[in-house]
Amino acid sequence: MFKKMSEIYKILLVVSMSSVVASYASVISQELLDDYYSGYSDTFTVGGMISGLDGDGLVLQNTGDNLAIDKNGSFIFETALVDGSAYYVTILSQPTNLRQTCNVSNGSGTLVGGNVTNVTVTCTTNTFTIGGDVSGLAGTGLVLQNNAGDDLAIDEDGSFSFATLLDDGTAFAVTVLTQPTDLSQTCTVSNGSGTLSGSDVSSVTVTCVTGTFTVGGYVSGPAVTGLVLQNNAGDDLPIAAEGSFTFSNPLDDGSTYSVTVLSQPTDLSQTCNVLNGSGTSAGVDVVNVSVTCVIKPDDIFAGGFEG
């Protein structure tokens, strides 16, 4: 009887000790796991580098996590992602103060046990054209410049645009390098200078005006009262005395002229003839028209001879 009781006690003791060991083992295992995971994070950040940024207003996005960027250098999105999550970095807003275009490289993938640091954002400043309109051009040889270079030959009225594009924010200054030469013209520039502000410039105005020149010459004769000259059947010019004359209305360069006698002198019977009276204005005043008046031979002896 006593022997059986002793065996039962031993069995109970073994069972009890096994439970205690199992309990302690469970606690130790949990502590080991806690210690292991305390140095391990299952979320990671997404970031990278930005270069070339000169404007304001750049905003990046990673699956809804917006990040405003105001300078070049490294960046990290605020929201960490669970390991194994996909990431997708895009441009939400391009820079606006200076117009720039920013592009993303290495912007998408899946987190694999570490932070992402190789997303690259590269920004380049947008470029724009400088141009406008030319009017009144009749000659040849007009050459425009922008910023003392980028020469642009103009051969007709209408729109123009310089070949070289300029970065947004760059100053421009359109000038006339060479005036037209075939006809004497003066071309002037309006709205020719400023600073690019996010769009092409098309408001530069170049207006060309043809130079004007006078027509004149010299009248000779004993008495020219009543003499009236004309140019191109108009612009009547009474001549009061021998000497130089000039018509009132100047002519555009390249215009033809034709000087004639509208009325002969009246105080003596004279005939006035014009030499060098026609031609084409060629960039200078005409001063070589010659009007010579002579008394008719019959009038020389009209009063007879006194003896």
Provide a descriptive summary of the structure in words.
- With 307 residues, the protein is mostly beta strands.
- It folds into three domains: 43-125; 128-210; 213-300, Immunoglobulin-like.
- The chain has helices at 2-38, 297-300; strands at residues 43-44, 46-51, 58-62, 65-69, 73-76, 81-82, 86-93, 100-105, 108-110, 116-125, 127-128, 130-135, 142-146, 149-154, 158-161, 166-167, 171-178, 185-190, 193-195, 201-210, 212-213, 215-220, 227-231, 234-239, 243-246, 251-252, 256-263, 270-275, 278-280, 286-295.
- The chain has a four-stranded mixed beta sheet, with no helix packed on it. Strands 4-3-7-9 form a four-stranded antiparallel beta sheet, with no helix packed on it. Strands 15-12-20-18 form a four-stranded mixed beta sheet, with no helix packed on it.
- A hairpin with a 2-residue loop joins strand 3 and strand 4 (65-69).
- It is rod-shaped, with a radius of gyration of 49 Å.
- Mean pLDDT is 88; it is low at 12-18, 20-25, 32-39 and 303-307.
- Helix tally equals 2
Helix-residue proportion: 10-25%
The CATH topology of the largest domain is what? Immunoglobulin-like
Approximate strand percentage: over 45%
Q: Main sheet, how many strands, which sense, barrel?
A: 4 strands, mixed
Count of extended strands: 30
Give the terminus-to-terminus CA distance: 207 Å
Provide the fold topology.
Elements: H1 2-38, E1 43-44, E2 46-51, E3 58-62, E4 65-69, E5 73-76, E6 81-82, E7 86-93, E8 100-105, E9 108-110, E10 116-125, E11 127-128, E12 130-135, E13 142-146, E14 149-154, E15 158-161, E16 166-167, E17 171-178, E18 185-190, E19 193-195, E20 201-210, E21 212-213, E22 215-220, E23 227-231, E24 234-239, E25 243-246, E26 251-252, E27 256-263, E28 270-275, E29 278-280, E30 286-295, H2 297-300
Parallel strand pairs: 2-10, 12-20, 22-30
Antiparallel strand pairs: 1-6, 2-5, 3-4, 3-7, 7-9, 8-10, 11-16, 12-15, 13-14, 13-17, 17-19, 18-20, 21-26, 22-25, 23-24, 23-27, 27-29, 28-30
